[in-house]
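Please check the following for our workbook:

***
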Amino acid sequence: MKTIGIYSFFSGAGFLDLGFETEGLTIDFVNEYNKSFLEVYKFARKNMELKEPKYG
């Protein structure tokens, strides 16, 4: 079965993305303007051992 890839814009800390992944979708690309939020996003994904998306 093919999975749907999500491009996440204005991602914040990534809670919506986590919900998508819980339902079987994949996060392929993340874009967040606020550097503090992006650092939290990266830190959380690393600690939860989730696949790293591309960041922009």
User: Anything to note?
Assistant: The radius of gyration is 11 Å. The mean pLDDT is 94. The CA atoms of residues 18 and 28 lie 12 Å apart. The chain has two helices and three strands.
